Amino acid sequence: MSETTQNRADTPPSQGSAPPAPDPAAQKRRNNRMLVVMLGAVFMALLDSTIVNVATPTIRTDLGTTGSSLQLIVSGYTIAYATLLVTGSRLGARNGFRTVFLFGLVTFTVASLACGLAPGSVTLIGARVVQGVGAAAMMPQIYSLIQLNFEGAARARALSLYAAVIGLGVVIGQVAGGLLVSADLFGTGWRPVFLINVPVGVVLVIAGLRLLPQGKPPKPKGLDIPGLITLTAALLLLVVPLVMGHEQNWPLWMQVSLVASVPALVVFALVERAVARRGGAPLVPGRVLKTPGLVSGASANFFAMAGYAGFLFAFSQHMQSGLGESATRTGLTFAPLAIGVATGSLTWQKVPERLHRPMIATACVVTAVGYVAIGFDMRSGGHGGLALPALQLVVGIGMGYITSPLLTVALAQVKPADAADASGVMTTAAQIAQVLGVAAYGSVYLGTTDGQGADSSAHAIFVTALLVTAGALLSALAALRLPRKRQTA
């Protein structure tokens, strides 16, 4: 149901009179404002996944935290976010996308205030987990609201902007974190890293109450409690060791947890089949996964985002630990990458539709070339010279030509009734990809360098770049399985 349809349904016409015809120009302006609210929330949530990284030394000094507590402060958000995304998607389909989005936004904003005022590490860890819960409620609703309120070129543009915000949020978080911590506003140290979300969140909540469409889905779906329990358990078994494994030196229980995640996912699949046989509403309906382009698009996006997030993490470590750069300067080093992502995300629609499938596969190959070229460029142990920003720009443009069209193509043939479930699949796959990318590629980098200076770190970033390149090529292969022609749902 589009926003226009919902508004007409919510406001019955006067008796004996026809409803006034909607003003297309006014509707377009309202939709654009609604999109700004949603993208603002996306940016804030993604910013928070990286902005805290550069603040950890200051937090440790101020609160006297242990290494394990510091790791939980960083990872508590990611763990809650990644494991509850599908749950958030189903809650939106049951209770209304607007309602759940605003609930998540309010929860995230209040938790940000609690983080900024936390007197100790325990309180900060708890508030970070609640932040993740809020983000998991917000994020899946974005896909659904875009699918239901935008059509044709407007939908493609909205998804392009969404993908651009995702790419930019991860990069800008490192810049913003360094600047805020270095500024030490009013002697507050690390606290503005979280408190900055509060005024932004309040403005977005007020705007969302005015702009987001009212109404619930015509046929609310059940919660599928068995599916929620088994999927959440399986994701926890997978995500917790991936996020914390290297820091904790991979204890036995984490290794067992990783292995156990595989049969846990099998149990989830069996539970979903049983729910479908009983006539219930499985968390991930089989018909959604059979939608042309969804699985191949999610797979291509998975490999692309895993490499992107993993390489950003490893390269940031190389700049700071290997080359001794500050957090702020390291963040600014990624500016060409951010410019490239924005450029690619906003220009790919100029390519004829019949070329979108080969365009995505070609962009995956371009990013692969960019990654391996950066690896060779940094192999000497230097700062890369003028070639580095040019190569980062290439990778950024490639990512822009991958993620934005992938979202459009993968969701193009999803029926409106399945928008929430499809968005849950896409969002969860992308988030798990980032977690897995940082864990896998980050572990390669950290395991290869011996911490003995620039040469060791340069070798480690080179090895990491080669593996990220292989992942980008896998993304290209998955993209070749996309439907040849995109149809509008």
* Average pLDDT rating: 82
Question: In total, how many beta strands?
Answer: 0
Q: How far is it from the N-terminal to the C-terminal residue, by CA?
A: 12 Å
Estimated radius of gyration = 22 Å
Order of helices and strands: HHHHHHHHHHHHHHHHHHH
Q: Supply the helix-strand structural class.
A: mainly alpha
**Proportion of residues in β-strands:** under 5%
Helix percentage range: over 70%
Tally of helical segments: 19
Give a quick account of the main beta sheet: strands, pairing sense, barrel closure.
Answer: none
Unreliable residue stretches: 1-19
Taken from the alpha-carbon principal axes, the silhouette is globular
Q: How would you describe the overall organization of this protein?
A:
It is a single chain. The protein has helices at 3-10, 24-51, 56-63, 67-95, 97-117, 121-149, 152-183, 192-195, 197-211, 225-244, 252-277, 286-289, 294-322, 327-333, 335-347, 356-378, 387-411, 419-448, 454-479. Helix 4 (67-95) runs antiparallel to helix 10, helix 4 runs antiparallel to helix 18 and helix 5 (97-117) runs antiparallel to helix 9. It is mostly helical.
Descriptive terms for the model:
single chain; 489 residues; mainly alpha; 19 helices; globular; disordered N terminus
Topology:
Elements: H1 3-10, H2 24-51, H3 56-63, H4 67-95, H5 97-117, H6 121-149, H7 152-183, H8 192-195, H9 197-211, H10 225-244, H11 252-277, H12 286-289, H13 294-322, H14 327-333, H15 335-347, H16 356-378, H17 387-411, H18 419-448, H19 454-479
